[in-house]
Structures are given as C-alpha cells and as structure tokens.
Amino acid sequence: MKDLLDQIESALDANLYFLALAGSLLIPDICGAAGSKNGRSSREKYINWFAKYASNICPFLSGEDCWRFRCSLLHQGSSQDERSSYCRVLFIEPTATTNVFHCNVLNDALNIDIRIFCLGMVAAARRWLGEVEGTELFKRNMRKFMQRYPNGLAPYIVGVPVIS
How far apart are CA 140 and CA 120, in angstroms? Predict the structure, then answer.
C-alpha cells in the first residue's frame, strides 16, 4: 500500500497527472476492501471511506460524486457522468499558472486542483493506515493486495523485481 502511495506522489512530481489521478481514485476502493470482512470493494464502502477520511479535500465533492467520477475515469476515460452532481470535473495542472484553483463550482462543473486532490487522498490513506495497519483484518486482506517484491516471488520468479 505504501508503494502505491509513494508512486502517486512520484507521478505528481513527474507531472504524470493522469496516472496520479487514476491512482488516487483507487485509494478509497482499496482501503474500503482492505478494511472489510469479505476483502472486497463496493460502492457503499468507497463512499463511506471517502466520507470518513477524505471529505475535507473539497466540501463540494461528496463520496458519491467521487465514486461516480472514479467510475467514469477508470471505465470510460471520462470526467463526465450524467448521474453526478456536476456535468464534469475540471482539474487545473499545477504548472499552468501561479494561481491555485481548487474546489470551485463553475456553472455546472467542479474545479479541483489535481495536486491538492491527489495529495489529499494520499494523506487520507496514510491516516487510515495508521489506524488499521496492525489489525488482523487488514493483514489478511493485504496479503491479496498487488505489491512489489524486490527480489522476486518464489516459486515463480526469483532474483528480479516482480509486481503481483
């Protein structure tokens, strides 16, 4: 989990905003699943995790709207969902201007600073990790989490880094 959060931050530093955004939108899914008895994500778990840990990122962005945006982006490559409270989500790239445009409703669109959003999601996940990391439920669910094995994953591949 920490590798994923570190890579989201690295993507931001490298101006890889699509990757940072996609990774950030996965966080409530992964955390919701890792903290649940069945180890699986759901719309309800995503929304509840967002409401508890990430709602302070932008008061105009609900867990429901974030989930809808996540679905639109990850499944259709879009920032638009007709069921959302907003016609689209607009992200300003941090290097585009010296001004920060964050958490603004512009007509029927929501404007969010991509760096503030992604770093806010990472910070929320790190807070959540601090609460659950030592629990048996978390440990059990995270065994299935995709992670990096720097020396391989025996008995399949050894001696080279593997992600599985």
Answer: 26
In whole angstroms, give the CA distance from residue 57 to residue 119.
9
Q: Is the pLDDT of residue 79 over 80?
A: no
Instruction: Give domain limits for the chain.
Output: 2-163
| 109 vs 78, higher pLDDT | 109
pLDDT at 13 (0 to 100)? 96
- Token pair 């689209």 is found at 88
Distance CA 140, CA 156 (A): 22
* Cis status of the peptide bond prior to 150, with omega within 30 of 0: no
Give the pLDDT mean for 51-71.
Answer: 94
